[in-house]
């Protein structure tokens, strides 16, 4: 019975973490480029009560008896399916149709990756116009450099094609390529990326090195869609159902603790 107390306690702890993940998903339902997170669980050690052997009469027992000792969280994975696309009036709003990520350079000098394409042009150190995130982080090109345009350009006239190439209209109004392409990168294992907050991911040994779509011919290239943003892929109805299931599982584990406590109380009262 003491075993059941601890086993049920691990179930309550696991379901509390599951609810924390669901709450985080719901809180980010309107976060651009957010990816739903899902808890994965695994059983703990098993205690052998009876091994596979023969009975007193020499009969073979086909299986032994093992009692599980509970559950714990094994991973929290992200589902990288695409979210819905929303039209934007901003000329620097970009959505990725595919598996790619934008690359940005943060204030610490490291390169991070994001699906949030809500960018803006800001003044660069040399006076030019630099494409940057809302936090002011430079957006990197396919060559890994910040995207900086001359200061005399009217940034509202910038056109971005599906392959990420920037173009600017000439005297006749026809867009001409500028020789700059917005960088889009893929990973062999996106779930291996480390979440850094602010919709940013960092590469790890588990994710593998970033694969540049502009230079890797083996990749299926993503399309960049201007004047659109990718929303969160959180399904509210699914999260509400998951919340109900989690709450019921938490209640069942708490009832198991109560039942074990009452059984222990009955055992203690046997001498009275």
Describe this protein with a few key phrases.
alpha+beta, 2 helices, 4-stranded antiparallel β-sheet, 272 residues, 3-stranded antiparallel β-sheet
- Nearest-angstrom radius of gyration? 27 Å
Helix content: 10-25%
What is the general shape? elongated
The helix/strand series, from N terminus to C terminus, equals HEEEEEEEEEEEEEEEEEEEEH
Number of domains: 2
Report low-confidence residues grouped into runs of 5 or more.
Answer: none
Mean pLDDT across every amino acid position: 88
Please, could you describe this protein's structure?
The protein folds into 2 domains: 2-43 and 71-80 and 234-271; 85-230, no CATH class. The strands form 8 sheets. The chain has a 4-stranded antiparallel beta sheet with strand order 8-7-15-18, with no helix packed on it. Strand 9 and strand 10 form a beta hairpin. By secondary structure, the protein is an alpha+beta fold. The chain is elongated, with a radius of gyration of 27 Å. The protein has helices spanning 2-27, 236-268, and strands at 37-43, 46-50, 65-68, 71-78, 85-87, 94-97, 101-105, 111-114, 120-123, 129-132, 148-149, 159-160, 165-169, 175-181, 184-186, 194-197, 200-202, 211-212, 223-226, 228-230. Helices cover 22% and strands 31% of the residues.
């Amino acid at each position: 019975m003491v075993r059941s107390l601890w086993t049920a306690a691990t179930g309550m702890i696991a379901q509390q973490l599951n609810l924390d993940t669901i709450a985080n998903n719901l809180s980010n339902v309107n976060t651009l480029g957010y990816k739903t997170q899902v808890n994965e669980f695994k059983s703990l050690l098993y205690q052998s009560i009876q091994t596979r052997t023969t009975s007193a009469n020499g009969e073979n027992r086909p299986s032994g008896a093992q009692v599980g000792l509970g559950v714990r969280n094994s991973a929290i994975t992200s589902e990288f399916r695409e979210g819905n696309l929303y039209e934007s009036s901003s000329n620097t709003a970009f959505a990725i149709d595919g598996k790619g990520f934008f690359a940005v350079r943060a204030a610490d000098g490291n390169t991070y990756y994001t699906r949030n394409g809500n960018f803006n042009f800001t003044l660069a150190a040399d006076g030019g116009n630099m494409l940057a995130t809302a936090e002011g982080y430079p957006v990197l090109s396919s060559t890994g450099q910040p995207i900086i345009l001359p200061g005399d350009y009217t940034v509202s006239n910038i056109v971005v094609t599906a392959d990420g190439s920037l173009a600017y209209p000439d005297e006749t109004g026809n867009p001409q390529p500028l020789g700059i392409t917005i960088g889009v990168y893929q990973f062999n294992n996106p779930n291996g990326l480390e979440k850094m907050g602010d919709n940013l991911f960092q590469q790890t040994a588990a994710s593998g090195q970033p694969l540049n779509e502009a230079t890797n011919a083996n990749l299926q290239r993503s399309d960049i869609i201007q004047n659109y943003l990718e929303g969160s892929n959180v399904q509210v109805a699914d999260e509400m159902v998951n919340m109900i299931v989690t709450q019921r599982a938490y209640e069942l584990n708490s009832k198991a603790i109560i039942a074990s406590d009452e059984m222990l109380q009955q055992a203690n009262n046997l001498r009275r």
